[in-house]
Amino acid sequence: MSLVRTDIPLRLDRLPWSRFHWLVVISLGITWVLDGLEVTIVGAVASVLERPDTLALTSSQVGIAGSAYLAGAISGALVFGHLTDRYGRKKLFLLTLAIYVAATTATAFSFSFVSFALFRGLTGAAIGGEYAAINSAIDELLPARVRGVADLAINGTYWLGTALGGVLTLYLLDPNLVPINLGWRLCFGIGAVLTVAVVLVRRHVPESPRWLILHGRGEEAERTVQEIERDVAEREQVALEPVTRSFQIDTAHQVSFADVWNVIIHRYRRRSVLCLVLMVAQAFFYNAIFFTYSLLLTRFFEVRPERVGVYLIPFAIANFLGPLVLGRFFDSLGRRPMLVITYGSSGALLLLVGWLFRQGHLDATTQAIGFSLVFFFGSAAASSAYLSVSELFPIELRALAIALFYCIGTAAGGLAAPALFGALIDTGDRREVFTGYALGGGLMIFAAIISLWLGVAAERRGLEEIAEPLSTR
Q: Cα separations (Å) of 131 from 75, 274, 386, 403?
């Protein structure tokens, strides 16, 4: 046993917002931009990839490739989530970013359905690993009082990637500007180019002091916090208030499978049920619809492939604005009420828009407007699922908890969703497609009911107060 008394978490939580926090938000939050870019590009090029002069895929194969991306994300999150808790946040968010560059570059050189699906799976593995490393690092570095709004805003940047993807595809998929078999390849190459710049910025983000102290690297943790405090005090011209409280942890404590089982199945069973439902619902909700959105536009509304991006841009803007506008209420009104509002509203609105589509009352423009309204609430809901998982479990297994719930939620709620919707769209029957929308809307409403029952009041509370570290003495 090696007992250490520390006040580091409390010192991090009392810091005013500063340039350091912006560095964390921008350099780590880019993960969601990249994910949004990847998913949007696949959705936008789906119909292009069906052409005989490209990869000649079927709609079902496009859906399967989407599922391969999700399968990769599941396995990547699980493997890298464990490694993140063991070897540190920083090592892993640099490693997974490097893997992403290699995989998305390889996707640009795909030559068949098998190679395309394989490279999409590897890209997904990198993004899944990023989710575990980044969510844990962000929550451990940001002050408690703004964790809700900051987390939702960061997750919402996924839709900046979506907007970027929409703009890029307008030009790169236009056969009058770029040869069709080159344009879709350039779309994937863009992600790799952007990521190289991100690596340069991300190197300056420190290791989580919370993780360092837990792993017996107290002196390094103290130096890191002192540097952060000095930078914040100088740049913000403030005198930091002293911290008078501390707590003791056992740095020799090693997390075992029994610890993980006890925490998730016994100690925090109610939280585990809540997080599982939230993740399953949002995974199906998003992956079912978004991976096949371009197929819907081209098949039912006769939108030309090069014009799909036009309809993705307003959709992305609404998704980005949702967390920005609603995020602050997660810190003021509270986690439980906002989970109920965002999940319930998005589910009910999807049922309405789906019914209008089924009845033939929508065209491409009004369909895009309807989806934009649905996902204004849905984007905040999905972001809050990641926030819930990352703050409701102890630091020793935070990254692993994020990975586990992401994996289980995505596998149960999202893995088959793109292939399912691809098959429903292939029928050409609006009633069949509406069945999928009804399932997605129903899951979101069910998640709202569960949130009302099991939601946790985590707003403005320190991570160690919400979930006491396993090694606390």
A: 12, 19, 9, 8
The pLDDT score that the predictor gives to residue 252 is: 63
Residue pair 303/311 in contact by the 8 Å Cβ criterion: yes
Other C-beta atoms within 10 Å of 261: how many?
Answer: 11
- Annotate 165-218 with DSSP letters as a single string: HHHHHHHHT-TTTS-HHHHHHHHHHHHHHHHHHHHHHHTTSPPPHHHHHHTT-H
Burial class (CB in 10 A: 0-12, 13-18, 19+), 348: middle
Q: Does residue 384 contact residue 339 with C-beta atoms inside 8 Å?
A: yes
**How many angstroms separate the CA atoms of 110 and 105, rounded?**
9
Instruction: Please state which of the ranges 51-55, 277-281, 345-349, 351-355 shows the lowest mean pLDDT.
Output: 51-55
Is residue 293 exposed (0-12), middle (13-18) or buried (19+ Cβ within 10 Å)? buried
Confidence (pLDDT) at 286: 83
Instruction: Give the model's pLDDT for residue 458.
Output: 94
Whole-prediction pTM? 0.83
Q: Are 390 and 141 in contact (CB under 8 A)?
A: no
Residue 253: pLDDT band by 50, 70, 90 thresholds? low
Query: Alpha-carbon distance 269 to 264, whole Å?
Result: 6
371 sits in which H/E element: helix 364-391
| 259 phi-psi bin (left φ>0, alpha ψ -120 to 50, beta other) | alpha
- From the number of C-beta atoms within 10 Å of its C-beta (0-12, 13-18, 19+), residue 428 rates as exposed
Other residues' Cβ atoms within 10 Å of the Cβ of residue 361: 12
* Mean pLDDT value across residues 55-84: 85
